[in-house]
Amino acid sequence: MAYEPRHMKWWGWGNEDAEFCPSGHPGFWPYAKEVLEIERDDFGRREWDLESIELPEAFVDEKFLAQLRSFLNPTQISDDRKERVIHAYGKGFRDLFRLRRGLAGGAPDLVVYPESERDVCLTLRAAVERDVAIIPFGGGSNISGCLERMETGRMAVSLDMRRMRRVLEVDLRSFTARIEAGVFGPDLEAQLNASGMTLGHFPDSFLHSTLGGWIATRSAGMQSDKYGKIEDMVVALRMVTPEGELATRTVPKSSNGIDIKHLCIGSEGTFGVITEATMRVHARPERRMVPGYLFPEFEAGIEAMRECVRQECMPAMVRLNDPDKTALSMAFRPPASGFSKVAGSLFKNYLRVKRFSLPRACLMLTAFEGGDAAVARQLKQVQGIYRKCGAVSLGASAGKSFEATKYDFPHIRDFLLDRDVTTDVSETATMWSNITPLYKDTMTVLRDVIEKSGVRPWTGCHISHTYQCGASVYFTFGFRQNQGSEMEQYLRVKRAVQQSFIDHGATLSHHHAVGTEHLPWLAAEISTLGVHTIAAIKRSLDPANIMNPGRMQPSQNPFEDWTSLVNRTRSVLGVHDLLAKRGAH
Amino acid sequence: MAYEPRHMKWWGWGNEDAEFCPSGHPGFWPYAKEVLEIERDDFGRREWDLESIELPEAFVDEKFLAQLRSFLNPTQISDDRKERVIHAYGKGFRDLFRLRRGLAGGAPDLVVYPESERDVCLTLRAAVERDVAIIPFGGGSNISGCLERMETGRMAVSLDMRRMRRVLEVDLRSFTARIEAGVFGPDLEAQLNASGMTLGHFPDSFLHSTLGGWIATRSAGMQSDKYGKIEDMVVALRMVTPEGELATRTVPKSSNGIDIKHLCIGSEGTFGVITEATMRVHARPERRMVPGYLFPEFEAGIEAMRECVRQECMPAMVRLNDPDKTALSMAFRPPASGFSKVAGSLFKNYLRVKRFSLPRACLMLTAFEGGDAAVARQLKQVQGIYRKCGAVSLGASAGKSFEATKYDFPHIRDFLLDRDVTTDVSETATMWSNITPLYKDTMTVLRDVIEKSGVRPWTGCHISHTYQCGASVYFTFGFRQNQGSEMEQYLRVKRAVQQSFIDHGATLSHHHAVGTEHLPWLAAEISTLGVHTIAAIKRSLDPANIMNPGRMQPSQNPFEDWTSLVNRTRSVLGVHDLLAKRGAH
Fold it and tell me: Is A154 on the interface with B (CB under 8 A)?
């Protein structure tokens, strides 16, 4: 293959040569130290040694391997140590915490790189025959536990889709493109841009995630306000299952019974492998503007968003930070940005005249896209609404600063992990009428549970991904680790937040998938019968249960299993157990 | 119940006192006579005698009935002759053809009117216990064969949902309403209008169809261009199945695995009964305009629609008639309409100057809705596009004439059936790049197959329900009946059209459901594995197969069964067979 996207570093987010650079954001560490009550600086630089990883010996079924070799070339099969470690997990807190302590119990025995749908079909066929588990893998950016192996007793293969990366066909008359599922965000956009088109899907993970991953997890891009969530963009798709191929017609809409597409979208690798999709695409916008605004308080910003819904003029992106997230954004800004200049004393005086209370002020980042005239018109209308809600404009610079760093936020977590700080995110979506109660109560729950562990909480929230009836509510939190019980501390916090979502009628996740992290709440979310129905579909498409096993079906003791997951995968997956079990059959 | 929508007449469309009135459309019959080569007028008036219907004796399981009586009041249960005949079929050609010949083999044994979700649950529980088939019934307007009983051997009940008609809750902040599924279009709009809201869903069947029916069949309203298809409007729903209740959370979007909503939407009564849904609603628009336009030819109109997609300014409704459908619209116009005035000789001269060839001219009907300023702006932009494509404006009158008669078109079919003319519709959807080939080839197929039966075809088409990537293509056709082989003649035509859709990569139906009429093509549409997966879901939710049995699963000889359906249901469903079979157990 001429081009193949690189793997992320196994110990954190992004490529091995990319990391959070404190000098690029000089205000950040002082801010973090203050809000998290950190009193030292001597954390030093950690070195990550692949050899120190406790990696279970690979169990390889030789007959399966021989079959693979009959239709794959040698570069498509890898049992390399590093490859196995990279494919052991996604990038959730729990994932990185384990890897950084040398635990890679979730690692597959083998990594396979299909280059065509035929490769996928034949691999699945061989896997069924030899009872081998298959875990589809896109960019490996998932943070909800979709990627680790969940069982012992048989061989597990990570099916890494990145070589299936072609845009196969662009229909310029119908504004669609047929695309292989393994393509990464930047590669996809480059190919589409060559035809003057864009998908318009820019999740935070854009650099390190794939089309197939987006579809399998119901991803949302930053500009979902205009372009929709990924499920709104899929016109047709193909999914290879152990029982054959599910394929839907390339038609705009249909009345053909239940919509089979939706058996594939969100299936998180448990039914089959999404190999290609025909997606709605858009002409690249003539004009793009990214102005920022400051609202006097959070409620005023929410009201402004809702009014844009009412007037049908929502920008392509909106992201309203609460006061603490606003403070974090200020602290995160590059040293010489225009935004930092306007945020100087003159501007502060102006805000004082406007009766802004800075500790309550909320940053709203927006993006406008389209034809020149349409953008100008929409901007005027939106600004009129924002002004009525008390906002002041920060000009284009706030947005530009955000644009420049928008894919860098996940690096902060690694930086803080290096400094014994746990950070994570939990996001949901709810109706406009429920956003404020959900926000207030969840914040209380979150701060309480963190304080109970004896440390000071940092919590922030932003509202984004608006729809006519509601929006996503995205919580970020951080705290100093309880040394020796970091995971227990983390799980108590995570559980409290998720439970608050469910208690408040919100969803368990707006765009991060179920995986293992949200599994205990699945029945509360989609009803017990919903869970049973998924099991029935699974039995039908994957009777041998080879596809990403152990997911989508909460156990009898879901919370117990959820809490003990970190220990379970460490102890259970010894290769000797595996071999012994195989021998017995 | 204070209010209950009336049933439609059993022999045709609409209420018993409503029918097509030739004097209201003086040009229509002369036009029809000419294009269909009809040479007589002496068809007289048919009288429809309920007593002449050959209705199988009802088979009633007394234990089931006793159970029903324990939780329903007497007005909720009916074995009345007329009720059974009304619930025997929907309103497809095949349905009316049989009823008008006195055949009601599809009739249920009993009609039940639930008034609450509890009534539905208890009825399904009793039905499972006594092995009774349940056929959910909304307004009875379906034309794809979703409603007739398909099997013998056990009792069948039509579950008529019309008494579950309340808007339970309107969330004005979130623009949603929670609504019982049995509500009819006008009743629903009246209730929503009381809160200043509208659903924005106006299918041709609006007067005689229900929310639950729309959701179960994936209906589309005339203004789907703005408000979306019904599946785009559902925020959450509840479906009672024999195994319990499927319920989804009221959240704008989620990443909670596969979207369980889509196991209910389009399920056509085969998995359970949709009892309520939370729907997106909209403030009633300040302004509504319905201008009409004339395009020099069909292609120019299609190009104009596509350009509106590109410029993101599609009207709330667009409906582009091809030349023959345009001629029909002209013939259908009321005697003194403004449209008829402008279509006078002056206007014809104007068109000649504009180099319009009237036989090729195409009528485009549109609707614009929203705030005053937005409508004015959008109108200007759209008219600019239309003008560039050669269109001339017909002013507001063309649209007003359409608005006044838009729900009356189905009456024409009854009027023509009375005159030995078969008319029907077949509709599909396809990508913009495929509309012209599909249109041209399907027209050829359609005209050929009608001509082969020895009569002159009338065919027309309109394009409507636009999406970013394509639109619905809606064919209407009519021809003189071959006396004595009317059904065979009809089925040959219908089959040819549907086959053409599938051959051209289009969908088997855009908004009319699968039912029995489109069942033979289901595997071609959603893949064989898709059909098997639906069967698996069905086994899981309805293991005793009591819900609308005989649907969604094509038989081994789908076309043979499809062709013989009319005879099968007549001969098989004798009550004596039923009784004999029951006795044997």
Answer: no
Residue B579 has pLDDT above 60, yes or no: no
ipTM entry: 0.94
Q: How many CA atoms lie within 13 A of B318 on its CB side?
A: 31
- B142 close to B214: Cβ distance less than 8 angstroms: no
CA distance B371 to chain A (A): 8
Angle between the B28-36 and B323-332 helix axes, to the nearest 10 degrees?
Answer: 140
Residue A342 domain boundaries: 287-406
- State how beta strands B197-198 and B176-180 pair: unpaired
B26 touching chain A per CB within 8 A: no
Specify whether A273 is located in the same domain as A178. yes
Buried b (16+ CB within 10 A) or exposed e, B449-481: bbeebebebbbbbbbbbbbbbbbbbbbbbbbbb
The interface residues of chain A toward chain B in range 488-547, judged by CB-CB distance below 8 A, are: 505-514, 518, 522, 525-530, 532-537, 539-541
Is the residue at B46 inside a domain? no
3-state secondary structure B401-414: HHHHHCCCHHHHHH
Residue B573 has pLDDT above 60, yes or no: no
Pair A380, A454 in one domain: no
Report the DSSP pairing between strands B287-289 and B362-370.
Answer: antiparallel
Please check whether residue B28 lies inside any domain of the structure: no
- Over residues B311-345, the pLDDT tens digits come to 999 999 999 999 999 999 989 887 765 555 555 66
Give mean pLDDT, residues B525-541: 97
CATH number of the domain to which B482 belongs: 3.40.462.40
Q: Residue A524: is its pLDDT beyond 90?
A: yes
DSSP H helical ranges for A314-434: 323-332, 338-342, 345-353, 372-388, 396-405, 409-417
- pTM for the predicted model, two decimal places: 0.95
How many contacts, defined by CB atoms under 8 Å, are there between A and B?
297
Distance CA A67, CA A63 (A): 6
Q: Give the model's pLDDT for residue B401.
A: 78
Q: How many CA atoms lie within 13 A of B166 on its CB side?
A: 8
Residue B10 pLDDT = 96
Domain count for chain B, please give it: 4
The CATH number for A394's domain is 3.30.70.3450
Q: Alpha-carbon torsion A21, A25, A26, A29, what sign? A: negative
Residue B248 backbone dihedrals phi, psi, to 5 degrees: -115, 160
Q: Which amino acid is at A10?
A: W
Residue-level pLDDT at A5: 82
Give residue B570's identity as a one-letter amino acid code.
R
Name chain A contacts of B429, Cβ cutoff 8 Å: 251-254
Q: What is the pLDDT of residues A394-448, one digit of tens each?
A: 987 778 878 888 888 889 999 999 999 999 999 999 999 999 999 999 999 999 9
pLDDT in tens, A89-147: 999 999 999 999 999 999 999 999 999 999 999 999 999 999 999 999 999 999 999 99
Q: Are A166 and A535 in contact (CB under 8 A)?
A: no
**A123 and A186 together in one domain:** no
Q: Residue B431: list chain A partners with CB under 8 A.
A: 171, 173-174, 176, 250-252
At residue B578, the pLDDT reads 38
Final residue of a structural domain among B349, B371, B406: B406
Residue A445 falls inside a structural domain: yes
Could you give the percent of chain A with pLDDT greater than 70? Answer: 94
Residue A6 belongs to some domain of the structure: no
- Token pair in block for residue B120: 């539905």
